[in-house]
Design a protein that fits this description.
By secondary structure, the chain is of the alpha+beta class. It is about 30% helix and about 25% strand. It is built from 12 helices and 20 strands. The strands form 4 sheets. An 8-stranded mixed sheet has the order 4-3-2-5-6-10-7-20. Strands 14, 15, 16, 17 and 18 form a 5-stranded antiparallel sheet that branches. It has a 4-stranded antiparallel sheet with strand order 11-19-12-13. The protein is globular. The protein starts with a helix and ends with a helix. About 30% of the residues are buried. The N terminus and C terminus are likely disordered. S-adenosylmethionine binds next to strand 1.
Length: about 450
């Protein structure tokens, strides 16, 4: 009620409110804000189960010195936190699930925090961040990592659970380059998480990433633009009954990894009954296709296409008369056989259905589609028994012998990167100074 009374004050009247009234008002509006945020948080309250939680706890404990304070900024019910040794700090925007027996917890929105909120000593972060934040399309993991980059000092580390979809180029690209991805543990079996909102357990493909704050910039995936991808065909969400120049199809979003990039003939996709299958959705044609194998329609779906918008199969079209369609098709058949698309998407989906984009199809044709890994990244496969077969007292043994790529960053390259970063920082400082001066001028006038 108090909030409403204050909201009705005109600016002139509001000048007359006392300091106590103002503080009370701040308190109330803060709570209103927190309720909004915790509502968002509620959509992403997937709590970690024991095997993975212990694994992550052991990993942070063995990765940082004993005097470093470990923050779990989105602690939930303390699934991971209970395995982190002292000194440690627990926080969450919604602390209602945190058990009293685990001690103190701060009610805090991590994305609004500053380093000084965590004392003056050395820090490390250990977290299972919300994979999605409210209605935002971007990854919550990326937002949390970028906050870590902001608050951590050089040499400090983050151990984080991430969805395997966060390993995609489009996500890694958004993480600040001064946060270096140094190690990834790929959890081979989908892990169960307790969805506290829907009250059910859901399997998610995840990995555990180790990031390190550095001064130098780590390489990020290249952003390909249309003009970089000059190919003799186009890739469209179209069906040959809608436009003439469809030559064949590529399966871009199948139900299994094995079929990703499969080349499909025009007559291998059939509609049982055009009128039944040709649905108009939001003014766009949409079709569901049957699959034909050896001339017979099989049970498995052939895929869907929503004209010009989306779908699980894409048409390869050519407009020039002299284009050699057979050559293009043969190349795509080779790419499919050699598993180029499968390798690119391997362990990069949180669910079971992999997918590739128009640009990725063109990149594959040009030989530019390879799984991205920054120089020096160590990737470790973690089979299920490694997560399961140990007790709390046992020192965890990671299958370090399964290292896929060794850390190879050459000192020289690091030095070059450092110089580059210093230059970029100097530029940034000048820009910040300019903004501050402008703000000062604004305040003065
Ligand atoms: C995926 S759950 C993980 C919880 C716990 N760490 C675990 O592994 O079981 C994500 C947690 O982040 C919290 N959260 C969401 N947005 C947040 C924010 N902006 N700041 C702090 N915590 C947040 C949610 O309340 C939720 O407890």
């Amino acid at each position: 009620m108090y909030t409403y009374i204050l909201l009705f004050f005109t600016p002139a009247e509001s000048k007359n409110i006392t300091k106590i009234e103002f503080l009370y008002y701040k308190c109330l509006t803060h709570n209103v804000k927190m309720t909004g945020r915790s509502k968002d948080a509620k959509r992403s309250q997937f709590f970690t189960q024991k095997d993975l939680a212990m694994f992550v706890g052991k990993l942070i404990n063995k990765s940082v010195d004993n005097d470093i304070t470990v923050i779990d900024p989105c602690v939930g019910g303390g699934a991971i936190y209970q395995y982190i040794r002292e000194p440690r700090i627990a926080a969450d925007v919604d602390t209602s699930y945190f058990p009293k027996k685990l001690g103190d917890v701060e009610t805090r929105d991590f994305l609004q925090t500053k380093r000084t909120d965590y004392g003056s000593g050395a820090l490390a972060v250990c977290m299972n961040p919300p994979f999605k934040l409210g209605k935002k399309q971007t990854s919550g993991v990326v937002d949390f990592l970028n906050k870590c980059d902001e608050i951590l000092n050089k040499g400090e580390i983050v151990v984080s659970i991430a969805s395997q979809a966060d390993r995609q180029e489009s996500k890694i690209m958004q993480v600040k380059p001064t946060l270096h991805l140094v190690k990834e543990y790929i959890i081979l079996k989908a892990q169960p998480f307790d969805d506290k909102v829907k009250n059910k357990t859901v399997p998610v493909n995840v990995c555990v990433q180790v990031w390190e704050k550095q001064g130098a910039r780590q390489v990020r995936p290249k952003k390909y633009k249309r003009k970089d991808l000059n190919v003799p065909f186009d890739v469209k969400y179209e069906h040959h009954t809608w436009i003439d120049n469809v030559r064949f199809y590529i399966r871009n979003g199948p139900t299994s990894q094995k079929l990703l990039g499969e080349v499909i003939d025009k007559n291998a996709l059939r509609m049982n009954n055009w009128f039944e299958n040709n649905i108009v959705e939001k003014g766009r044609n949409k079709i569901k296709l049957k699959r034909v194998v050896n001339g017979k329609v099989v049970e498995k779906s052939g895929g869907t296409i929503t004209q010009g918008k989306s779908g699980t199969i894409m048409a390869i079209t050519t407009s020039e008369k002299n284009t050699n369609v057979n050559n293009i098709r043969e190349k795509f058949e080779d790419l499919y056989k050699t598993g180029v698309f499968q390798d690119f998407m391997k362990y990069r989906k949180s669910g079971t259905n992999p997918s590739i984009t128009i640009n990725e199809i063109k990149r594959a044709y040009l030989g530019l589609l390879k799984p991205f890994a920054p120089s020096g990244l160590v990737v470790v496969d973690v089979p299920d028994n490694v997560l399961k077969n140990y007790t709390a007292n046992e020192t965890i043994r990671f299958p370090e012998d399964i290292v896929v790529e060794k850390r190879t960053m050459v000192k020289e390259q690091e030095a070059k990167e450092e110089v580059k970063a210093k230059k970029a920082n100097a530029k940034e400082e000048v820009a910040v100074k300019a903004v501050k001066t402008r703000q000062l001028l604004k305040l003065k006038f």
